């Protein structure tokens, strides 16, 4: 039966969109140093489209996996750049990870499964790895931290504190890397010293997820 999990995910996407709107200028500035200076705008368009699509759902009939499937389609339809297929695949994988779960309130185990699916979806679609100076330098360690916390049975607040600490460290580490994937790879060594904008936006997304799950 549909439950609170779908509502938590819808609130999560509202919070993601809000933080991206607040940070979109900074994200585009980061992108300007090594890319096309449009990352913040692209992410804003994508998550506004997601929330528009989610607003049409009947929450009394919606499961958590349905929310993520709708988000995947909406993001892909709105964002034609490389980020679109990456996050669309991520949300589609997350939907698949939650499809067989019976926990409707999305406890830490479900949250960890979702983060793991997002990370693997981005990795598989982009053919990248940790260390390539991309959003994977945030998503992979964040997913690992979530899995470890779930295995230990940590409280959600403590788990998410560690997830965000790990995510921020991953984003900061991209300053020391030379880009080998995406548009940033075109500038080669000149990407050194700059934070990857996709990593920065991933930290924003994870922060919103923490707020949705720990305060919602």
Automatic annotation (TrEMBL):
PROSITE patterns reported in the protein's UniProt record: DHAL
Record key words, sorted: Kinase, Transferase
Domain (DhaL): residue spans on this chain: 7-211
Superkingdom classification of source: Bacteria
One GO MF term: glycerone kinase activity
GO biological process, one term: glycerol catabolic process
InterPro entries: DhaK_L_YcgS (IPR012737), DhaL_dom (IPR004007), DhaL_dom_sf (IPR036117), Dihydroxyacetone_Kinase (IPR050861)
GO cellular component: cytosol
NCBIfam families named in the record: dha_L_ycgS (TIGR02365)
Name of the protein described by the UniProt record: Dihydroxyacetone kinase subunit L
Native species: Kumtagia ephedrae
């Amino acid at each position: 039966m549909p439950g609170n999990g779908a509502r938590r995910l819808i609130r999560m996407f509202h919070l993601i969109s809000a933080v991206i709107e607040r940070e979109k200028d900074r994200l585009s500035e980061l992108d300007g140093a090594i890319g096309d200076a449009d990352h913040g705008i692209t992410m804003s368009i994508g998550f506004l489209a997601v929330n528009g699509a989610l607003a049409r759902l009947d929450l009394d009939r919606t499961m958590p996996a349905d929310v993520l499937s709708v988000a995947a389609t909406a993001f892909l339809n709105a964002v034609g750049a490389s980020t679109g297929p990456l996050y669309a695949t991520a949300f589609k994988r997350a939907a698949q990870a939650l499809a067989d779960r019976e926990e409707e309130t999305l406890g830490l185990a479900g949250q960890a499964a979702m983060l793991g699916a997002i990370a693997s979806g981005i990795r598989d679609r982009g053919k990248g790895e940790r260390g390539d100076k991309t959003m994977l330098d945030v998503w992979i360690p964040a997913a690992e931290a979530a899995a470890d916390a779930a295995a230990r049975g940590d409280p959600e607040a403590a788990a998410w504190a560690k997830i965000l600490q790990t995510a921020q460290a991953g984003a900061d580490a991209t300053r020391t890397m030379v880009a080998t994937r995406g548009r940033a790879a075109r500038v080669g060594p000149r990407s050194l010293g700059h934070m990857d904008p996709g990593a920065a936006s991933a930290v924003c997304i994870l922060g919103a997820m923490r707020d949705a799950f720990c305060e919602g």
